[in-house]
């Protein structure tokens, strides 16, 4: 009977979705809290992401990167939320290379000490980053996604990912150095 | 490579994003340049520190459970499609053999078959939920044998209210409760213990699904409806004990 084969197909799709999506749940939640800065808002965001992803799973192209696909849904959902709209409205982001140092003098005690900052210092510094820089650090350093997958999530060219990663790490380094100087 | 590595290249190196040629050229430069080597080390350490600091928030077990349930709930909600497909199929069949069989007879048969499937699906679903809840390490969101603790816990979570019986059959105790979802509807799951057996009583908004079969997958299933909700009791306890608990629960409403 046709409906039986449809049932089996639907069950297979749902099983495949759960198998791919549930292991990513902790990562999605972590990024969601960083973006929304609120655990209840993050729960809403993740819940909506799962809802949309399951509904749209039939459109997911098998063989492509599921993690990038579902993180893109998370990000787009965040961007259309009230907090996302407000956050992104205040973001500076000059995609030109002005503001990005060509080289850095690494051979200074300050520069070397920054790399030894403890977790609390790094977390505080991350909290000061604009969302567009924070999200690229989360995807690249925390989620260890490749630049090409980050490009899919953020819907930007890979060259922009490269410069944004450099800009984000530079901004984080500056905040850490500034905090260190203020303590001295 | 004599020129210093620019910041973008250095970061791409640390991220493992350089091609083999670029990596070889960068390595050659690093072997000669202390400043860029310090930069690469510093960036690698910062990346590591960011990775550790960034993995900061973990979802609560309750939220994880809710997401798993939601995925499962959507799974169930999506199941009407076979029934819709069946309706379409049956409708096509009606057209094809309309000359031989009256439409009214077929329509009735089709509706009966759909209703039977729906009732069976309901019984299977509550049995699955009962098993799933008991299979986890901490099956209850609220753990209490006090009905004055359990009932208020559902305030604001359900679109109806219910009563818990003042006295229970001998050997029966209330253990706790969960909020779950059946067919996309918030549903109370009350868990009782009858000697060594557990009983789940599910309370969901009143619907027109009809009475489920009295057993499914070896479990006893009992059902009744009030003006506001449907109750479904599921257990592997003997039929008499389940009937007794269902009776006092129904009388409390």
Main sheet specs of chain A: none
Helical amount among residues of chain B, as a percent range? 40-55%
Number of strands of chain B: 7
Quickly count the helices of chain B.
8
Proportion of residues in helical segments of chain A: over 70%
Radius of gyration of chain A: 19 Å
CATH class of the largest domain in chain A: Mainly Alpha
Q: What name does the CATH topology of the largest domain in chain B carry?
A: Phosphorylase Kinase, domain 1
Approximate shape of chain A: elongated
Number of domains of chain A: 2
Task: Show the helix and strand layout.
The complex is a heterodimer of chains A (184) and B (253).
Chain A: H1 2-21, H2 25-36, H3 39-55, H4 66-79, H5 82-89, H6 109-114, H7 119-127, H8 131-142, H9 147-154, H10 158-183
Helix pairs in contact in A: 2-3, 2-4, 3-4, 4-9, 7-10, 8-10, 9-10
Chain B: H1 7-14, H2 20-32, H3 34-54, H4 61-77, H5 80-96, H6 103-135, E1 142-143, H7 147-153, E2 172-182, E3 185-194, E4 197-205, E5 215-216, E6 219-225, E7 229-235, H8 239-251
Antiparallel strand pairs in B: 1-2, 2-3, 3-4, 4-7, 5-6, 6-7
Helix pairs in contact in B: 1-3, 2-3, 5-6
